[in-house]
Amino acid sequence: MPGPLDRLMRAPTRVRAGVIVAVAVVIALISVVLVATSGSSGTQVTAYFGETIGVYPGSTVDILGVRVGKIVSVQPEGKQVKVTMTVDGGIPIPANADAVVVAESVVADRYIQLTPAYTSGPKMTSGAVIPATRTATPLEIDDLYSSLNKIANDLGPNGANKNGALSDVLNVGAANLNGNGKNLGNMIASLGAATRTLSNSRGNLFATVNNLQKFTTTLADDDGQVRLAQQQLAQVTGFLAGDRQNLAGALHTLSVALGQVQSFIGSNRTLIKSNVSKLASITKVLVTERASLAQAINVLPLAVDNVLGAYDPQTRTLDARGDLRELTPGVYPAGDTSAAGSSAAGAGNLFCTTPPGQSHSAALGSLCQAERSAARQELVAVSPARQASLPPLPLPATGTVYGSAPAGKGR
After folding, report:
1. DSSP element (H, E) containing 60
2. What is the pLDDT of residues 339-362, one digit of tens each?
3. Rounded CA gap, 378 and 324, in Å?
4. How far apart are CA 237 and CA 235, in angstroms?
5. Beta bridge partner(s), residue 98
6. To which H or E segment does residue 77 belong?
7. Which residue ranges make up each domain of the chain?
8. Cα–Cα 20 to 30 A to 126, which of 104, 117, 395, 402?
9. Residue 106 — pLDDT band, cuts 50, 70, 90?
10. Contact between residue 60 and residue 67 where contact means Cβ atoms under 8 Å apart
11. Burial of 48 per CB tally in 10 Å (0-12, 13-18, 19+)
């Protein structure tokens, strides 16, 4: 049985030519469709908006104000609007891009802008969905009018100003600002200067905040020690609170004592001033003789120990060994101080005897001068009348009391 191709070959030439032309036309149409399909390929994106006023199929899709695609369909779905758009192939879109409805003017159609522009990272693939949390629409004029109308009603005679409260606020504000324009201007200028000062000192301000942060961090790290300090402070305050009556009594007594001190100072101001002046002179003497005082303090314990050792409790006397030659008349004449009279004055004194061929400047001569100086300070008996004018002795006197010769007299 002959097939279609055999019947076509046996058909007349005109028929065969028509069939070939029809096949060529079909092949051309298929090629055009394929080319058109390949040329229109791009990234299909679906976005959900709360409303899409002024957005229609065929509206443009822009990135940074440049048209990159168009809207394919706008379909309401419940409380949202599903917008399907196509972005030209080869234009990358960030995977986390947002979709925003943009109004060029009040009356013009709107378009959708994808933001931000792609720089790096993952790209949005075809079929991606932008949820309503990443879309935005411009505020409508009706919404703006509604908001203004609501504010006016809330502040009007049926709202906050129903009893004249808002009017009172405006009147009081006007009264307070009346005549204070210059002061208000000065305040604003001063505030600007303060702002500039803070701006110029922002480094110090930030350093202070940084140091405060370090301080708080240190307190946080030493939280245990801080808590311990707080507990101890609480214990101290509790102790003071428990003894508040005694503390109040002590403060009252202190106030009375301070009042008495004030009265005493007021009554004896002149005497106190005199005593302070004398004390200043005494203090000056002590400062001048501080070396002697230091030496006396060092020697005084030894002297007291010697006195205690010399005291005889049986006889109630101080036992001491003195230079009995000082009591021998004629051995150390007190009146002769010249070097020329050294031989006569040194009669009986071995130190004052000049050996042959030596002078008194020799070593023995210096001892002679020491003996002669001691002779001028020889002890003499002190009469009872003179004892009465002298400072009292530390122990009762036993027998004759000896002392230095009075000034300007001999023995």
Report:
1. strand 60-63
2. 444 444 444 555 555 555 555 444
3. 10
4. 5
5. 115
6. strand 66-77
7. 40-138, 322-404
8. 104
9. low
10. yes
11. buried
What are the phi and psi torsion angles at 124 (to 5°)? -80, 130
Give the SS3 label for residue 234.
helix
State pLDDT tens for residues 189-237: 999 888 888 888 888 888 899 999 999 898 888 888 888 998 999 988 8
CA distance 37 to 85: 16
Average pLDDT of the chain to the nearest whole number: 78
DSSP bridge pairs for 69: 61, 87
What distance in Å separates the CA atoms of residue 56 and residue 59, rounded to the nearest whole number?
A: 6
Residue 335, pLDDT > 60, answer: no
**CB 110 within 8 Å of CB 74:** no
pLDDT bin (cut points 50, 70, 90) of residue 67 is very high
State both tokens at 35.
């080319």
Query: Kind and range of the H or E element at 87?
Result: strand 80-88
The residues, any chain, with a CB within 8 Å of residue 190's CB and separated by 6 or more, are: none
* 380 DSSP 8-state letter: E
Mean pLDDT of 5-33: 58
Q: Is the pLDDT of residue 327 over 60?
A: no
The answer to whether the beta carbons of residues 140 and 55 sit under 8 Å apart is no
- Sequence-ordered alpha helix ranges (H) in 268-319: 269-288, 290-310
* Strand, coil or helix: 54: coil
24: amino acid identity, one letter: A
Residues 135, 48: contact at Cβ < 8 Å?
A: yes
Q: Identify whether the C-beta of residue 405 lies closer than 8 Å to the C-beta of residue 380.
A: yes
In the predicted model, what is the mean pLDDT of residues 92-114? 86
Q: How far apart are CA 298 and CA 287, in angstroms?
A: 17
Q: How far is CA 356 from CA 307, 338, 353, 360, 368, in A?
A: 45, 20, 9, 11, 16
pLDDT for 318 beyond 90: no
